[in-house]
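Intended use. Records like the one below are meant for learning the mapping from a protein sequence to its folded structure. Do not use them to infer anything beyond what is encoded.
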Amino acid sequence: MKFTQKFANEKLAKSAAGAMKAVCYFVIGFYVLCFALGLLGRQTFVLHTKTGSYGRAIYAEEVHSAHSRNMTVSMGDDIHVWTDDNDQIEPTVHIGLTLMYAVHVLPMAFAFWLLSRIFSNIQQGQIFTEQNASYLLGYGLLQIFAAVFVPVIKGLICWLVNLVSDGQLSISTGQAMFKTLVPGIGFLVAAYIIHYGVYLQDEVDHTL
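Structure written out for the chain above:
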């Protein structure tokens, strides 16, 4: 009990919440930077050309050299790109890669914004509130969306690109599904706990 009281106190919790809010902002900024790099064609993939195959290639490069790999991003998926008849990467392929990367990072950026709101409320001493329950619910749903639906959307984008492009794009995704799905479900449970705590507090207030 003394150990719990020592570390699970209001002052320490508020300080930790403030630090975690700053971490969330940093992560959001990192996601925005990564999205900008993806938009600029600096997302890596395996490139297949008439002269050979190149790992960690990017759309923005003109020569396949090591120095061109600085400031690049990756979704962690297995992505392969084939050039067209002129041995060039089709602009539609770049658009497809950009859309897939947007679907990959933007929901998570918004999820961390919701998480930052929770830590901000905790820092202010607002813990068992409907707002926190809603933020936790939103964060959990976004995690589940990223785990279950984002791989499907990426596959659909890949199919559409191949439908209109002379080049070819393939993606193998969904490998980290359970890594994202399990925490998402956990946050749904946490949202229910907070919501139920608010309900009990309301019952007590009305009884008194």
